[in-house]
Design brief:
Layout: H1 5-27, H2 33-40, H3 44-71, H4 74-93, H5 98-107, H6 109-112, H7 115-123, H8 128-139, H9 141-183, H10 209-214, H11 219-248, H12 254-283, H13 289-309, H14 316-329, H15 333-343, H16 350-378, H17 381-423, H18 426-429
Helix pairs in contact: 1-8, 1-9, 3-5, 3-16, 4-5, 4-7, 4-9, 7-16, 8-12, 8-15, 9-12, 11-16, 11-17, 12-13, 12-14, 12-15, 13-14, 13-15, 13-17, 16-17
């Protein structure tokens, strides 16, 4: 199947709205926490178990989703994921007891780990030279979903209750399931790669264990997995603790907190496609281009965050401006890491490679808020944010440097394997190491 320009942008739009609405649904529980706690008469520890359960289930399901995506039609599996999102959210809304609420909330983690299939499928519609921009645009859905979830909770929570809000978002998941099932065509794996674009009949290649295990032999991929564990620390710590930091340590009013964070999130959203676009531009000049952008992002993020948190509390406008400037650089690594993973992995194991990346990131995101809390108790919340973010970015900087050194060889190997497929060279094609 050759790329159809109109259809591939329909696919992009479909998955953008899937991720946007799914993120809104996933993050709704934060703003609705007080209502939920009042309904079930529970404390903060019991409420914390609700989120932990979903994270554990999501982490366990990452390898399963990756394997299934690489074996079967990704479009149909993504339709199933959307249906599961809607169904489990509905079950969560009708849970009559706290125990049932914990179990049904944990079940929502099943579809939380379905994103690798989206990135893998999209990679077969968009060629490598523009994937950074495409992934950057897709990843805007995360901060915008965060804002949308907050707005939905504020606008509808008091009118229809938290259960009503869950019914609305769950229904949207079911509607999107039908759109994906009937509207998204399954592309041939690898069809957008330059070596295969002019091949009349691309041989089918599905998951096999030899190719999957060979992923761990790639030095650059191992280093990207390492940075993935630490790279989520800043986003997770800021998401969990920055509201409270502004309230308690910078003495911001509720309105000041809201407007400061909305501004920061909007600017942060722009950083995803900006980072992806710059990465694409540099990638055309050097195979190290994407990782150069990612490395620059973590360096600038660390420097600017340190400057921002050093600004006196009364300088709210300057603080907001510097926070916005910091926010531009924080997400720049995201689309470039995703694009790089696909620059060095064969099409039939891309979902698996992305699932490993996301699983490692999930473990990191589960650990980061706890570490921040421990540091905050002994020092301050500002110190916790600064220490964890800058330390994590320092590790990412070293990992990116190593990956930047190895990446040309790993990209050349993939290009040679794809060229062998186009020419029918079975011996080289079947040598994934």
């Amino acid at each position: 199947m050759k790329n159809n320009q109109g259809h591939r942008w329909f696919v992009f739009a479909t998955f953008f709205f899937f991720m946007l609405l799914h993120q809104s649904d996933k993050l709704l529980i934060g703003p609705l926490t007080s209502q939920i706690m009042a309904t079930f008469h529970i404390d903060e520890v019991q409420m914390g178990a609700v989120t932990t359960g979903a994270l554990i289930v999501g982490g366990i399901c990452y390898p399963l989703w990756g394997y299934l995506y690489d074996r079967y039609a990704r479009s149909k599996l993504l339709a199933l994921a959307s249906l599961l999102w809607g169904a489990t959210t509905w079950l969560n809304a009708i849970a009559p007891t706290y125990k049932a609420f914990v179990i049904t909330r944990a079940s929502t983690g099943i579809d939380d780990s379905s994103y690798p299939g989206i990135f893998s499928l999209v990679s077969d519609y968009f060629e490598p030279k523009i994937r950074g921009k495409v992934y950057g645009l897709l990843e805007i859905s995360q901060p915008l979903g965060y804002m949308m979830g907050m707005l939905l909770a504020m606008l509808l929570g008091g009118i229809v209750g938290w259960q009503g809000v869950f019914f609305i978002t769950g229904s949207l998941g079911i509607v999107l399931s039908a759109v994906i099932f009937f509207g998204v065509k399954e592309p041939t794996r690898g069809q957008s790669e330059p070596e295969l674009q002019n091949v009349e009949h691309i041989a089918a290649h599905n998951f096999n264990w030899k190719t999957a295990l060979a992923l761990l032999k790639k030095p650059s991929l191992r280093l990207l997995y390492l940075q993935g564990f630490f790279g989520v620390f800043p986003w997770t710590v800021i998401t969990y603790w920055f509201f409270r930091y502004l309230e308690t340590e910078r003495n911001y009013s509720a309105d000041a907190v809201f407007f400061t964070m909305v501004f920061a999130v909007i600017v942060l959203a722009a950083g995803y496609p900006l980072g992806g676009a710059i990465g694409d531009w540099l990638f055309k000049k050097t195979p190290r281009g994407r990782l150069i952008v990612a490395t620059t992002g973590v360096i600038m993020g660390a420097i600017l965050l340190w400057i921002t948190l050093s600004i006196p509390n009364e300088r709210q406008v300057l603080f907001a401006v510097m926070l916005g400037l910091t926010a531009i650089f924080i997400p720049m690594a995201g689309p470039n890491v995703a694009s790089t993973v696909f620059d060095i992995t064969l099409p039939e194991v891309r979902s698996t490679s992305m699932s490993i990346q996301n699983l490692i990131e999930t473990i990191g995101s589960a650990l980061a808020p706890l570490l921040a809390g421990i540091i905050a108790v002994n020092f301050s919340l500002g110190a916790a944010i600064l220490i964890l973010c800058t330390a994590a970015w320092a590790v990412c900087f070293l990992a990116f440097l190593g990956a930047t050194y190895h990446i040309p060889k790993d990209i050349a190997l993939l290009r040679a394997q794809l060229k062998a497929r186009a020419e029918g060279d079975v011996e080289l094609e079947n040598n994934p190491a």
